[in-house]
Automatic annotation (TrEMBL):
Belongs to the major facilitator superfamily. Nitrate/nitrite porter (TC 2.A.1.8) family. It comes from Spongiactinospora rosea. This is MFS transporter. Pfam families: MFS_1. GO terms for cellular component: membrane. The chain crosses the membrane at residues 32-56, 68-86, 98-118, 124-146, 158-179, 191-211, 236-256, 268-288, 300-319, 325-353, 374-396, 408-427.
């Protein structure tokens, strides 16, 4: 393993067993651990406004419900938009340098939030700008996944990326668990603590990344594979399905605390339990991948969407009956299923491209892996944008009908459409199979 200035590694051969056992494994695990730290903090800052908005009224701010929802929509939108640029930033600037930068730059929105919540006279536009900059934390996921993918051999890459994704997603639960406790330390409501508490952690993460992580000269941007993936129909089919899984996870994560407060004002004290949904959803993601390996990703995805439709029906019923625990339980159910679906759909992507390359004259396994890696970045970005659609749905539903009913009905229909698409493209064996073949034979 050859190094040159700035902790750049020139020789990296993780698929060579001798290299991997000798030095590669140790270096890869160290980079994975530090990448997880920065990514986890990125998710925490990205989602932070979901907790803060539930206390703005108590702190003297008078934003209406639509304004409040936009404080949740904006960071989600910015985070989704940054996912593809952040993916390309790693090969351009190096994993070490960009990980340190991505942690350090989050000091800007956290500092701005501390200032904003300290004065009830802070204008709404300043809150919107702060929320937009919090979206920088949402891009960290793609940078981390792209960086770690270069360090591990093909046979271990799936496990490493699964751990990286799940551990990063846990940042949502950490923020929603810890912030309600921290802001009540001392006398009265200390809302600025919600921002200040992350600043020393971000500095530690940036310093640790700069001092102990590595960059690989072999990590090159693959523009050709990205262009091919952008033109591939399967990329966009899987993007649609990932809106239903990860889009649901991040969209519900942003809005769940506010929904608890708004729909059940007498139970506002239970906002502090909202972290349970993202926590269980993050932990269920690896289980989704495990089930996909054994039962098939398409089959797991289909049944996940069916169960999510049932979960939405449970939320609708809870609102009609004013049943808080049914509402809370149905949402936790949705988080569990979104996590399972995240793992299952991600597992499908490499299998889909491998099957298509096998069917193509002159196709190669290497080309399939490169296109699948590119597709994962695109699918992840589109899926994150699904969270924006979730929150826009709730916003417009509230404005037009004064309730969440229309939005929830739309989500139910969307999950039904995801079921139909999954079946048509990946499980259908008979209906119109000759005229429009599916990938059922590949057992993706």
């Amino acid at each position: 393993m050859n190094r040159h200035g700035g902790r750049w590694i020139d020789h990296w051969e993780p698929d060579d067993p001798a290299f991997w056992q000798g030095t590669g494994r140790r270096v890869a695990i160290r980079n994975l651990a530090l990448s997880i730290l920065a990514e986890n903090l990125g998710f925490s800052v990205w989602i932070l406004m979901s907790v803060v908005v539930t206390y703005l009224g108590q702190a003297g701010f008078r934003f209406d419900l639509t304004q409040t929802f936009w404080l949740l929509i904006v960071p989600n939108l910015v985070g989704a938009a940054l996912r593809i640029p952040y993916t390309f930033a790693v090969p351009r600037f190096g994993g070490r340098g960009f990980t340190a930068f991505s942690a350090l730059v989050l000091l800007v929105p956290t500092g701005m939030l501390a200032v904003a919540v300290s004065d009830p006279g802070t204008p709404y536009w300043f809150f919107l700008l702060t929320a937009a900059l919090m979206g920088l934390g949402g891009g960290n996921f793609s940078a981390s996944m792209a960086n770690i993918s270069f360090f591990f051999p093909e046979g271990r890459k799936g496990v490493a990326l699964g751990i990286n994704a799940a551990a990063g997603n846990l940042g949502v639960a950490v923020a929603q668990l810890v912030v309600p406790v921290v802001i009540h330390l001392g006398t009265g409501l200390q809302l600025a603590y919600a921002a200040l508490m992350w600043m020393p952690l971000l500095i530690v993460a940036a310093a640790a990344s700069w001092l102990r992580m590595d960059s690989l000269t072999s990590a090159k941007p693959d523009g050709v594979s990205y262009r091919l993936a952008m033109r591939a129909r399967q990329t966009w089919i899987m993007s649609f399905l990932y809106i239903g899984t990860f889009g649901s996870f991040i969209g519900f994560s942003f809005t769940f605390p506010l929904l608890v407060q708004q729909e059940f004002a007498g139970r506002a004290g239970f906002v502090g339990l909202a972290f349970l949904g993202p926590l269980i959803g993050s932990l269920s993601r690896p289980l989704g991948g495990w089930l996909a390996d054994r039962l098939g990703g398409a089959r797991v995805t289909l049944w996940t969407f069916a169960a999510m439709a049932a979960g939405v029906a449970g939320v609708l019923l809870s609102l009609r009956q004013d049943a808080f625990w049914l509402f809370f339980g149905a949402f936790v159910w949705l988080f569990v299923l979104a996590g399972l679906g995240n793992g299952a759909t991600y597992r499908m992507i490499p299998l889909i491209f491998a099957a298509q390359e096998r069917a193509r004259p002159g196709g190669s396994a290497g080309a399939a892996r490169r296109q699948a890696a590119a597709a994962v970045g695109i699918v992840g970005a589109v899926g994150a944008a699904g969270g924006v659609l979730i929150n826009l749905g709730f916003t417009f539903s509230r404005q037009a009908a004064g309730s969440l009913g229309p939005a929830l009905a739309a989500f139910l229909l969307f999950y039904a459409a995801c079921m139909a698409i999954t079946w048509w493209y990946y499980l259908r064996t008979a209906l119109a199979a000759e005229r429009s073949p599916s990938l059922a034979h590949a057992k993706v």
